[in-house]
Amino acid sequence: MQFSHAASKILVPIVAMLLLSDILSRCALADVIDDFENARTSWVQMPNDVGATQIAHERKVGDSHMGASSELISLHCGPGTYAYYGHAVPPARVVTDLKYSVWLKSDRQGIQVAARVVFPRAIDPQTRQPRVTLVFGDRYGEPNRWSSIGIRDIDAQVRQQVAALRSEHGAEFDPREAYVDYIVLNLYTKPGPVNVQIDNLDGEGMLNVGQTATVTQRPETSSGVRGMPGTTGVNVQLAPQRSDSTTNGQVIEVNDHPEVPRIIDYNGEPLGLLRQLGFTAIRTSQAPSPRLQQELLRYNMWSVSSPPEERSPADQSAVLAWELPVTSGEDGFSDFAIRASDLRLLDGSKPRPILAITQNRIRDFSQHSDVIATRRTTLGTSQSLSDYAQWMQSWGLFASPNAIRWAVIPTQFSPNSQRQVSLLAQQSSVPMGFQPVQLEKATFLAIANGVRGVLFESNEPLNAEHPANTARGLALELINRRLDLIQPWVAAGRRMEGASCNDPNVHVSLMATDTAILLIAVRTGRNDHLVIDPVPERKVTVSVRGVPMAAEAHLIGDSGIHWVEQSRGLGDMQVHLDRMEHVSLVVLTQDRRVIRDLINRSERNRVNLVKLRIDIAQHEFNLAESVRRALESPTQSSAISRGINQAWAEVRQAERMYEAENLQEAYRLAMQAENKVARVQKMQWQQWASLYEYPLTNPTLISYDLIPFASRLQGNLQYLRPAGNLLPGGQMEDPTFLLNSGWVQVKTPQPGFDSEVEFTPQQPHSGNYAVAMRVKPDAQGLYARPEQAPIAIHSAPVKLEHDRLVLIRGWIRIPQRLSDESGGVAIYDSLGGRELGLHLKEAAEWTEFTLIRATGNNDTMQLTFELADTGQVFLDDVTVHMYEAARGPEIAPGLDTGNGNNRFQTIQP
Predict the structure, then answer these.
(1) By the number of CB atoms within 10 A of the CB, which of 74, 513, 616, 909 ranks highest?
(2) For residues 371 and 752, what is the distance between their CA atoms, to the nearest angstrom?
(3) What pTM value is reported for the model?
(4) Which segments carry the region annotation Disordered (predicted)?
(5) Where are the chain's structural domains?
């Protein structure tokens, strides 16, 4: 940190301390291989001689060693000696200091960890692949407890095996430049079932192999550890194989036809179901098996996956794109570039597109990939859909103009958010999901900003029996069918300027083909990312410049293609939208062939689209009714009951019109019902959200179906009060104490920007100092905004008691408003994660921010403050408190303690 003259006497030692802290923190982070916090499994099944049957393999939320989730593997083993599972690690040279550790919890003791060592100079003459061996480490001890097991002395073990390896393979066996590429667990201990949870895979002393190893064909043998999947080897040019997809400029072509990929994370659902829901591709963590490839071809679907580990990538059928992993660290980009180059050589004469999903260094990665995708969670966070629209437009500026852009749309709350809500709700599992219209708006805002495909993130099967999954399925099918209607523009259209709207809350964009213009209009409300606003009952006028005089406007509606009210001005067309639609699609054309094609597409989809609208309205009605019953009280507004009753009548009438094949009237009634339910839902949500300056203060307000829990939590808080502050240094008065207690700054250098943190005496909230975070353009000023946050501050860690409510407080001042697309300044904690943090853009005067959290077992919390925009932010008086009983023996309203399972009972009166 840099400090004012008032602290000049201690400037040098403090800077030195901070630099040391920064370096140490970076080293520690670089050694984390996998924290198991995302939804995709990362351990892969390797050879076994016990006839192992896999019962379950998934990421499990809760009961983890650290964080929100761990990876669960359940097997049933017969007699034998080994059942290997492996986790790929960054290739690391075998050196004296190399070691690995992993945390396990299992119902069986004796599970052993090992490392797979690759000898790149010892090539098997039959497979033309490097030879490999295993070196072993600790065994798991006490069952049903989290324990760390590790492997050390890898270098010494390799030296001990050299003699045996030369005896087996000949004196020419060369052990030089050996490296580790897999950490392996032998899950076999004795015949029968075994259940193991895995968390926090770490490494130390990892010296990156660099460019001496490249991704190639995997070894295929049937015996011993040499049959395990490899990660590296020699470059082998494989015979060319037919290509399922390719790129043509800014277009993805499948079998020579432009395509709009609609991709879903695959969780074992029947492919027939996914095809029925409108998906054209699945995303898998591993290359699909031959059987799954056959199923994909049967349903005319494709795969997005990593290249195969045991087969030639050129032999893989039904490939839409190869996804290469993007790793952090200085070597992450060079590793990606090398692997992409090798994969193109191995994939035949017409290689399939390569996909990179990354948050940072977008231009670099997009220059070595064909498709670039990035994600930004907005639903259920403090970032509005309007901010999301601007961010979607701005991140494309960082990408190479030759790369095709896809959007990644989460369809469920993150495991971290689900865990925190479950703790606050005092339930092991809480039903929570996005509203269908929220997913629809997020998707079409992305489409409106030029993406050519959508990858929907999914953590569990869409056919899992749960109302939230039912709603997800309805929403995704509706989105896919609407995308099918406008496929020509999304697949191969070009974005054009020239649209404006008289309503600032309606985002409009244009996409053009040679003879037609598509207008996309998305209505956004202030809190649509949390609870949908009803559509205002007023006309919206969109002006479009440069429309040919003979062109007419037609609404691409769910119930058919309809003429839309329009008028002409000097060089433009005014389109008047009066339908109660959150997303309106309008085509402007004089080409009758375009209209005929749209009518044909509409005939394929309109019956299903109208039925989907009715089913969604029915789902939202059922949800509103269940929330009304949960909140029912004598003081409840009569407007809520009246709105629900009217919506029920309109849903019933819509169903009758649908059965009578009056699709247009059925659609109108369904949309009216959905709008009435939205008004009810917004009133119910606002009742509790109005108690907070920022709704994300209370995480049970991130979803409409959590409102009963928000009510209960608020009732409990009336009988609690914050105890003493637990966070050292948050008063921002003593820089030495701040650093000694564990506060650090982290700089992420960004081209074109300078950043700094300093203590300043200028207008502190209290005391003598506040901390200032600043980001400013460098002397050249070539960039509009940073690609990622150039500067962040991490607080000292705070140890918290289990099963307690926690209050985070602080004060912030932002002299000049930060931009919408950057996310401003992010304030989040390790319990709630980034998704439950606050993103603030304006606070001209000192403004208090608060966050409520709940702890699990032995949680340690750390706060993070990130500035992702040019400007400055001031922080002061940051505190962390645990709640304690405020008064009396009475129990808070709505607090059910009859079953004795209330985890917060220790802090209730």
Answers:
(1) 616
(2) 26
(3) 0.72
(4) 214-236
(5) 35-227, 245-410+433-485, 493-590, 600-690, 719-907
